[in-house]
Write a structure and sequence with these properties.
Layout: E1 2-6, H1 13-16, H2 23-37, E2 41-47, E3 56-58, E4 63-68, H3 78-81, H4 85-98, E5 103-107, H5 109-118, E6 128-133, H6 137-142, H7 149-161, E7 164-167, H8 170-178, E8 186-188, H9 206-209, E9 217-222, H10 230-239, E10 243-248, H11 260-272, E11 278-280, H12 289-294, E12 298-300, H13 310-317, E13 322-325, H14 329-333, E14 340-343, H15 348-360, H16 362-379, H17 382-394
Parallel strand pairs: 1-2, 1-5, 2-4, 5-6, 6-7, 7-8, 9-10, 9-12, 10-11, 12-13, 13-14
Antiparallel strand pairs: 3-4
Pfam family, one: Glycos_transf_1
GO molecular function: hexosyltransferase activity
Domain Glycosyltransferase subfamily 4-like N-terminal: 26-196
Length: 413
């Protein structure tokens, strides 16, 4: 198949190069590579966010990234990029008219909006449209995150135009059904993890980052400081006097003093009296992240709602038990009482109690870590996720007669 992936706000090149990258970048890069490896021709279309970006880049055989001009050539959040979706859709439509794909796969609501418009530019048979949502505003609202009426309305509209919808959890499929979308139109395909890179094998970077304080349990979290959750972790750390916390988040290490979010978190830690047990690592190159994860004893999340769950899966693949709120994609990844502990709410007392239970039973914690690595390797490899994505694509096309099973009766084999 000729597959066009549209990721207006998430350029896959940083993840492809092993640089710090958002979950969307990781997902698009991994799927593009593995679908190309399976014999498909994949083109990724992203907004040009830097003058230094070439018009076209390769990510290996049969996989390319094309940067389309749309708005200022600098990075913007998804919501800000939406202001330039019209220009992006026009540029995308021109490219699709030149090289129409079989499948047009949009990642996120702004990309979905562009695809609805650009698909009309394709001559002949319209390409099948697949829409991936890493999160839905309706689900975020249930977790206590802000309501975004315009986004929720657009999500419903682009979902209605799609031939197939891909979400990361059964919870999200429920939300789509609540919006009136038929369940049969929705495929649940989880986020993936590179288990060759993220694994239990190899050393750690404990000495490189911050030396472990003798006898202390090391917790680690990969989180967006601006999105919240760090406050919960700091309050939990206050209750865990024999623990320390490393947070991988925010701007580069050299920029941390200039970050408003980093300053806010550091001030909270100082006011709580735990600043000597908190390390803000900033973003970490993906080649270094597995070693940093392996330096910890447990992965913790204070977020009320994990948007993609990639960090949780990477920690599991490195053999860490997980403590997080059981919602959305985390419910798909973590087996409560087997690979970690799922919390009903992301509250400091509940998180601290769960970590304390793990540290009190090191054999159980080790068993959780082994089971977590096994589950990541058996269920969440990008090879498997790409195969499930390809299956979602094929649902868009009529079943060929040769593929139909025989009915019971005369002539059945």
């Amino acid at each position: 198949m000729k597959i066009a992936m549209v990721a207006e706000h998430a350029n896959p090149l940083p993840a492809h190069k092993g640089e710090p990258a958002c979950g969307d970048s990781v997902q698009v890069a991994a799927l593009a590579r593995h679908l190309a490896k399976a014999g498909h021709r994949v083109a990724v279309y992203a907004r040009k966010h830097s003058p230094a970006l070439p018009e076209r880049s390769r990510m290996g055989r049969n996989a390319t990234v094309e940067h389309l001009p749309a708005g200022p050539e600098h990075r913007m959040e998804e919501g800000a990029a939406a202001e330039h979706t019209g220009a992006f859709a026009q540029a995308l439509g021109e490219r699709l008219a030149e090289d129409p794909p079989d499948v047009l796969h949009a990642f996120g609501w702004t990309s979905g909006l562009a695809v609805v418009s650009a698909a009309r530019a394709c001559d002949g048979e319209r390409p099948r449209v697949v829409q991936t949502f890493r999160s839905l505003n309706a689900a975020e609202q249930r977790a206590g995150l802000p309501e975004r009426t315009d986004r929720a309305r657009i999500e419903a509209a682009v979902a209605g135009h799609a031939d197939r919808i891909v979400v990361g959890s059964a919870d999200q499929r429920f939300e789509l059904a609540h919006m009136g979308l038929p369940r049969a139109k929705v495929s649940v395909v989880p986020f993936g993890v590179d288990t060759d890179h993220f694994s239990t094998e190899g050393g750690s970077t404990a000495d490189t980052w911050s030396p472990r304080r003798s006898g202390r349990t090391r917790m680690i979290s990969v989180t967006d400081l601006a999105a919240g959750g760090a406050e919960v972790l700091i309050a939990a750390l206050l209750r865990l006097t024999d623990a320390e916390l490393t947070v991988v988040a925010g701007p580069g290490q050299e920029e941390l003093p200039l970050s408003d979010d980093a300053r806010r978190v550091e001030l909270l830690a100082k006011e709580a009296g735990v600043d000597d047990r908190l390390s803000l690592a900033g973003p970490v190159d993906r080649k270094e992240l597995p070693r940093l994860l392996r330096s910890a004893d447990v992965y913790v999340s204070g977020a009320p709602y994990e948007l993609c769950g990639g960090a949780v899966l990477e920690a599991m693949a490195c053999g860490l038990p997980v403590v997080a709120r059981g919602a959305g994609v985390v419910n798909e990844a973590v087996l409560h009482g087997t690979t970690g502990t799922l919390l009903r709410e992301a509250r400091p007392d509940a998180l601290a109690r769960a970590v304390r239970s793990l540290t009190a039973e090191p054999t159980m914690a080790a068993a959780y870590g082994i089971a977590a690595a096994d589950r990541a390797a058996s269920r969440f490899t990008w090879e498997r996720v790409a195969a499930e994505t390809e299956r979602a694509y094929r649902h868009c096309f009529p079943v060929q007669e040769a593929e139909l099973p025989y009915a019971a009766g005369d002539g059945a084999h």
